[in-house]
Every structure is written in C-alpha cells, then in structure tokens.
Amino acid sequence: xxxxxxxxxxxxxxxxDAEKExxxxxxxxxxxxxxxxxxxxxxxQKLIEQKEQEGLRRIGxxxxxxxxxxxxxxxxxxxxxxxxxxxxxxxEWEPVPYSSxxxxxxxxxxxxxIDEDIKGTSVTEEDILSVxxxxxxxxxxIDSRYLDFKFTLVDVVADNCSSSKFxxxxxxxxxxxxxxxxxxxxxxKNSEVATVxxxxxxxxxxxxxxxxxxxxxxxxxxxxxxxxxxLSGAITEAISFQAEDTILVDFAELGSVSFxxx
Length: 262
Ligand SMILES: O=C(O)C/C=C/C(=O)C(=O)O
What we know:
- There is one protein chain.
- By secondary structure, this protein is α+β, with helices and mostly antiparallel strands.
- The chain has helices at residues 8-21, 37-53, 68-74, 125-131, 153-158, 206-218, and strands spanning 58-64, 80-85, 89-90, 105-114, 118-119, 132-142, 163-168, 184-189, 192-198, 223-224, 229-231, 239-240, 246-251, 255-260.
- It has one domain: Alpha-Beta Complex (Fumarylacetoacetate hydrolase, domain 2).
- The strands form three sheets. Strands 1, 2, 3, 4, 6, 7, 11 and 12 form an eight-stranded mixed beta sheet that branches.
C-alpha cells in the first residue's frame, strides 16, 4: 500500500516530535486508512532505530492487549508488542515529573528478567520459564501520542504500543517459586483501590504472553536477549493519573511497587 501521508520516515518524525513535544496528534490512519499491520510494525522498527541513533538503548520488550478484556474492548484477537528503551525506566524513589507525559495511564504488570538468548517460532511458556531468572512486580505507564488516547490497532503498533515509562519493584522472585497463573493484584491511587485482577487475565499465564512475543519476533528472525526485561501486559484496565498522585500496585506473593508523580 502506498502511504498517503508521507514516507515511513515522515510518520516516524511525526510520532517522535509528538512524544518529544508532549502533544497529542491525529492518528496516522486518518490519512492512511489502508495502513497494514506489517507496515505499522515496520514504522515501529524505524522509530526504535531513530531512538537508537539519538543515543538510547533497547533494554527489552513490552506486550500490549494481552488481556481478553482489552482485546474485546479493541475488537481484536491478537496481542501487540513494542520495545522498552533505557530512558523509559523510572524508579520508585524518584517522583516522575508529570511534564514528561501527555495523558498518562498506569497498568499493573509482571516483569520477566531474561537470562539467556531465546528465539524461535514454536517457543512455549515452559521455554520462557527456563530462560527467566526472575519475575518482579511492575507498573507500566502508557502515554499514547494520539488525540484522546483513541486509535486503531495499526496506529498503536506504529506508536510503539503507547510505551512511555515503567517502574519495577525491588522484590524479585524465581519464577518456579510462584504459580504465575494465579497472582492476585490490586492497583490503588492515593490509597484508594482503583482496579483488581489476577495474572490469569494475561493470556491465561503471563509466561504464555512472553512466549507469544518471542514467536512473533521469531517470524522476522528476532528474539529476546540475555539481560532483556519483558513487561508481559496489563492485568487490569489502565488508570489515569495526574501530578501529585501516588500509584501503588500490590501483588499477592510478588510484593508491591509504587511511584509518585510530581
Ligand atoms: O492501550 C494502549 O494504549 C496500548 C498498550 C497496551 C498495553 O501496554 C497493555 O495492554 O499492556
């Protein structure tokens, strides 16, 4: 399909400028209604390469739309993936400036720490568990560059799946010490419970979601590398927050993680 709005490079610049300038933009399918999934991943790839040229480093992968609830909401049957860059990692002890966002939302996720390269197209959740050193509680902050957080699946893929920041808790556990399918979680804002869920919401088991991502990456000869962090996808719906808010996510057995916004 020929792009109506410009070249892939122009779309990358359009999305990166919106991210840098913290402003919402019209979704790219408005001018490119026939944009395909393959083209959207190609644009995402170029966007990540551009970030690398600007000095950032890939540190892992994130999954999106892994929960049935979120897939149904979007009318899709497939998850999506994007990349985590080193400037996305925020810490629990340093408030995150609200000025670094457009209209952020927080999601509770389980992070996987990968200890061996893994690649292929028939990778199973058992394979994932065998290369995972630790799992940890995490919060992903998503911040779509699109107006009102509204987009189609191809728009969000091109926009690196709304990736913005993430925070990992300091309690890391061996995956074999937990039943990853049944970890209850709640997320609170300013000490009031906002969402509750269980890890089974993520494709039945967050390890299955990571396997899905590896198989998808495998279709184009890519995979995960030793040292990668993988965010396995939101367990509950995302919640909006503002400056001065504190978000806390508490997982049964896995512990908690929080951040404050200033
Ligand atoms: O909802 C979005 O903006 C797309 C990203 C989704 C996720 O990160 C997720 O579902 O975990």
